[in-house]
Amino acid sequence: MAALLLLATGSAHAQYNETNNLFYFAQRSPQSNQLNPAFFPSTFYLSLPGMTSLQLGLPLAIGDIVAYDSTQQANIIDLNRVLDNLGESNHFRFGFDMNALGFGLKIGPVFVDANVQLRSYFNLGIPVSVINTVLKGNVNDDGTAIPEVTILDGDLFNMQMYMETSVGAGMKIPLTGLTVGVHAKLLSGLVNLQTDNTKVTFETEEDYETVRARVYYEVMGASVIPVNSDTGSLADMFKGLTVKDVAASLFDLNGNNGIAFDIGAKYDLGPFTFSAAINDLSAGIHWQKNVLSLVPKGGQGTIEFDGLDITNLLDHGTINADSLKAYLNEQVNGMMPQLLTDSADYWYSVPTKLNLGASVNLGILKAGILFHGQWDRGLLSKSSYNSLSEAMSDAQANYSEVKNTFRFNTTLSAGVNLFNWVEIIAGSSFVYDGHNKITLDNFLNPGVGIIFTPATLIQAYVMMDYASSMYLTQMKAFNFKLGFNMLIGSNRSSRIL
User: Fold this and answer.
1) pTM, whole model, 2 decimals?
2) Which residues contact 475 (CB under 8 A, 6 or more apart)?
3) Which domain covers residue 393, as residue numbers?
4) Distance (Å, rounded) from C-alpha 399 to C-alpha 397?
5) Does the residue 138 lie in any domain?
6) What one-character-per-residue DSSP string does 239-281 give?
7) Average pLDDT, the chain
8) Is 189 inside a domain boundary?
9) What burial letters (b/e) apply to 400-418, b meaning 16+ CB within 10 Å?
């Protein structure tokens, strides 16, 4: 609970997430065990390689950008419409997961499992303040100057890819309806790239005679792929690297590692089941191999513009190119990028997730409700430490401005089991981002899935979740999963027909 309170100190947004909620109630499928280690899907399962998961989340739908102009009788991009539909925090999110191998085995009241997966996610922030400044300038509606506008504040871009190797165990407590489980995970980082330590502001004096830009950016990254540490040139950092070197580095996972845990429990009370799980509880991945940074040459850069004597740029009525170039160099030279290949190592988080669920089995129908929350923390620290506790302590002291966002939604679902080998699950999620009024679109975010388990041996599944609208032009997000499992002793449930 103390760890959860620490993680929940940031802002909250109800948005789409990277977890397929319908799998939480598909408890005959091995993938449900990954969402709650207290779920035992079968006596034995083997999750085959190639399972694919795609997640996509957009801040705007096509219909939020394009409008029909009756005067031109054509569809046009309406920037005012875009601004009306954007909130304060807007992100383009993309995720991709792939299963390498997994298995689980139930022995009496005990269930053990192991899984290897490739996980990746990409997040691009949409700087609304940039659009507002371009359209409206540096003046308020009453004509007064806007003293300071923050254009970027570290919430622009991040991506991370890593291998996750987990082992777990669960146990049904005798003479009770309680089942508990836990996963321990080794996180092996492949690549990280982010701009969390970046800030750009524009300041305007009240008399409008001076406009000042303060710029600091730091593009930080690390990977298993070796970089050329003898050059400060971005173009030459991979110079001399061969395909063989890249292939070998993908199997050398030492140096960018972290540890995570899943903790889960469920309680069976007649036809009702109550459950809870915390997934990926972690201090993040310690990136210390092939670390590099892109920073301004002069540290924090400042451009101050208080007017320009254009006669200094003219030569007999034409622009003097040398004078113009010298002026521009004087203004921006200190902010030109410099590549640092001896940058300090750092810790970067993985999203921590919370699932709270309840379901009822009515024999011919199973219905459930799930609250899903997710913490996105980002950069934790930039220094070497002797312990994780030191790293977390320094993260609180020195990186208190790093965004800590809690995203959440609630899903209602229902499923039926036909002939005990075809399971159909459908549901809808309630999603509200706190910016616009509540409409039917907040409630109608449907999902549907079908799981085939012929002869209770081979299982194939297709899941589509968070289809955020029934209309393509209004869709902002979706989550798609496809894969295969081998089962023995499937967790049989009541069936129709």
Assistant:
1) 0.78
2) 61, 467, 468, 469
3) 2-297+336-490
4) 6
5) yes
6) TT--HHHHHHHTT---SEEEEEEEEEEEEEETTEEEEEEEEEE
7) 75
8) yes
9) eebbbbbbbbbbebbbbbe
